[in-house]
Amino acid sequence: MEKSVIAKYKKAGEITQEVQELAKKRLKVGANLFEFAEEIESAIMKKGAKPAFPINLSINNVAAHYSPAFNSKDTLPEDAVIKVDIGVHVDGYIADSARTLDFSGKHQNMVKAAEDALENAVAIAKKGAIIGDMGATIEDAIRGAGFRPIQNLSGHGVAEFDAHTYPTIPNIANHDPKKLEDGIAIAIEPFATDGEGLVREGSQAEIFQLEDKKPVRGREARKIIEFVEENYRNLPFAERWLQRDLKMGEFGRKVGLRELMQKRCLTAFPLLKEEAGKIVTQAETTLILHDGKVTRLL
User: Given 85, 144, 272, 282, which is the most exposed site by the fewest CB atoms within 10 A?
Assistant: First the structure.
């Protein structure tokens, strides 16, 4: 891994740390989540970086992929357990992190279970570490605290303009014999729950990603795909960003996105939910493995 690349990863990590601290300070019960998301994403850009994906603000049994719609009136409810998942990139090199904020004060043990699982996995992450052993370490910590890991969510590699790539870092003991290699970046992200340990897709999706650039007929679809390719490449983007940055109204957005989904140019990321009434917590950090060393970005 070149020194210039390492420097960009480190800068992304520094900015991610700063905006996570800002998020913790600014997020209050009753806060409008659209306004909060725009504030945090704007802070990233003011620091000279860009969001690697739309901020995820997933509450209670929603494990991932909630990002508010344009002008959403959604607010942070009382007694919420919210996962603040933020990704930052500097010239395409990504730091990915998540923290869980428990506004109820009732689920601190579950918050700690995810955090402890993360720290235990980080402690054994190095060149040559067996990936399945990392999953076992995460599962042991979460189950030892009396909760379940979410078995169909995992950590992942991050690479230039690629927020989810090889290797997959499991949250359970899946006996994967592959080993971590030098010259990669990985995001480790345990999820703990008092539910069954599985998430299912909901119907709502506000996050999309360019999958395959194909010829499209509609003017709105062409405009979206050109804009996404130029500005986000293969990184996830929010529908509300099309309103903010492309100045595209709701009707045009919906028409264009529908055609792009039908042509399979885009992938959608629907909400991922545990059982109703259950809680999910998450902790995440990013590491780079380089020159036989491990550097934690935040």
Answer: 144
Tell me which of 41, 85, 115, 274 is the catalytic residue.
85
Give this prediction's pTM: 0.96
Query: Is residue 259 flagged as an active site residue?
Result: no
Same domain, 233 and 87: no
Percent of the chain with pLDDT over 90: 97
DSSP one-letter string for the chain: --HHHHHHHHHHHHHHHHHHHHHHHH--TT-BHHHHHHHHHHHHHHTT-EEEEEEEEEETTEEE---PPTT---BPPTT-EEEEEEEEEETTEEEEEEEEEESSSS-HHHHHHHHHHHHHHHHH-STT-BHHHHHHHHHHHHHHTT-EE-TT-EEEEEETTEEEEEEEEESS------B--TTEEEEE--EEESS-S--EEEEEEEEEEE--------HHHHHHHHHHHHHTTTS-EEHHHHHHHH---HHHHHHHHHHHHHTT-EEEEEEEE-STT--EEE-BEEEEEETTEEEE--
| CATH classification of the domain holding 111 | 3.90.230.10
Active site residue 284: yes
Active site residue 239: no
Tens-place pLDDT, residues 70-110: 999 999 999 999 999 999 999 999 999 999 999 999 999 99
189 is an active site residue: yes
